[in-house]
Amino acid sequence: MDIRQKSRAALQSSADALESAATQIKRSAGWVADNAGDVADDAWQGINRAGREVGSFARNRPAETAVILLVVGWVLGTLFTRRSRDD
User: Fold this and answer.
1) 3-class DSSP state for residue 87?
2) pTM
3) What's the 3-state SS for the chain?
4) CB–CB of 58/65 below 8 Å?
5) What is the mean pLDDT of residues 51-74?
6) For residues 65 and 57, is the Cβ–Cβ distance under 8 A?
């Protein structure tokens, strides 16, 4: 096999690989387009569920919620004051 045949074979192999990749991308894009609504609905339901859980915790345990918010505020305040001192 001479260099021309090797080059043609390599080019053909590369072209076949690219064609295969393009076909797979088309399939994947089609799947995403077909299922985008379902994925968005699932995400929205998850966010709503998490919001209800947090709201329920805050209503049922106001003291614990206050302590958690106090700690979060303290951590954020410490973080930002240290950052401003470093500048």
Assistant:
1) coil
2) 0.42
3) CCHHHHHHHHHHHHHHHHHHHHHHHHHHHHHHHHHHHHHHHHHHHHHHHHHHHHHHHHHHCHHHHHHHHHHHHHHHHHHHHHHHHHC
4) yes
5) 90
6) yes
